[in-house]
Fold this protein.
Amino acid sequence: MSARKRGGDAMRGPGSAPDPETALAEAKEESIDVLAECFARDMLTVEDFERRVSIVHAAGTMPELAKAVDGIRTGGPADSSPPRSASVEALQRMTPDVPAGRVRANDRAVALFGETKRMGRWIPARQNTFVAALGSAVVDLREALLGPGECRIQAVAFMGSVEILVPPGLHVQCAGSAILGSFGEQPGDRAAPLDPDAPFVRIDGLAVLGSVEVHSRHPGESKKQARRRLRREKKEGRRARKLAEREARRLR
């Protein structure tokens, strides 16, 4: 356990549970430690190590973080297996499996002189249509359970607004048109899916005298906090690359 994590546990005191953001940060730190040890044991190539570390930094939820250790064996002989870390086994069990039968074909919501929201742990349909006419719609995918493959969102804003929140690391393809309005995406991590069945979101539609905006944030994260996180992740990414280069030189 790292000194930072021990310090955080001491500050919380016995019996108190960490908040979700702190718990995720600690899980990320432990995951990087585990990956670094696996790399040092020649169990991961440089490319695989960097790919998994990128997943850790981009993860906004525990299920997303679980993908960083997917496929790492936790059993077998002690001299050939990775560290028998409880976090590895726990993370590998956290990837949700959404049965295809639970994913609806279509979903629709209209905000007319009002507001509509989709938030929390919900299952988006394959085809989702959100219309905001003199109103607002919020589509929060940060804790949504996405089925495998494509999830399409058609957003239409007429003198209104549609805000779509996605977790960092989720692959998003955004294309839309605007007439005296705006249809855009906030810069963020948009790495391609690791496999063909990985969830990804395709967003299109139209904004007329209104706006359709796509923002990448962690659950409960504000715009200001998101900007700080992006700056911090850039620094952590540089540190991870230096670690990988140092380990590669050591193993040559």
Remarks:
- The mean pLDDT is 76.
